[in-house]
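For the sake of transparency, this paper describes our internal protein records without simplification. The remainder of this section carries one protein's record, kept here as part of the documentation:
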Amino acid sequence: MEHRTKRQSTEHRAQSTRCGETENAPCSVLRAPVQRKPRPWRAGFTLIETLVAISILMTAVAGPLTIAQRSLSTARGMRNQVTAMYLAQDAAEFVRSARDENLIKGSEMLSGIEGSCKNRKCTVDSSKQSSQFSNCPGANPGVCPPLLFDGAKGLYNYDTGVVSPFLREVQILNPFGGEGDEALLIVTVSWTEGTIPKNITVRESLFEWRD
């Protein structure tokens, strides 16, 4: 019995010596690591972080895109206003040029113009060599057709091209209700931006400057 006890004590000391033979490899290192399963809330937190990051990214991108869209809309509106103003000035200058040509030739101030434009709406096509003034169809004062844009020539006219958003109406009125040496020229260019109708009107008095 005593011999067995001494043998167990000897084996225990040998095992202790093998476990702690060196300081770099203690007995605790030889133990198998315990694997723990991740808790469910850790995976859910990662998903929440991803959603928050996506939301922040979308907000950061949406702001500049909205500003860019508004800038493009504003630029398009300014371009339409400038084009409409040029179209109105083009018609007014063409009528004034026709008035001056008539007076130089010794004709009446509105010769060739009043038949189409006096006291009613008419169209003015400065790209033509003849028949530049035409009545707008329909009952007085008439309904004028939209201008066409010829992309090859870069001109607005009424014969060739695609339909433009601009409608130009020209009227010549006698401010005194009878024949005289003064007439009122009214040029209106209208268009639509989205659902908002817009227009530009140019008014000019025409005088018979000839003595």
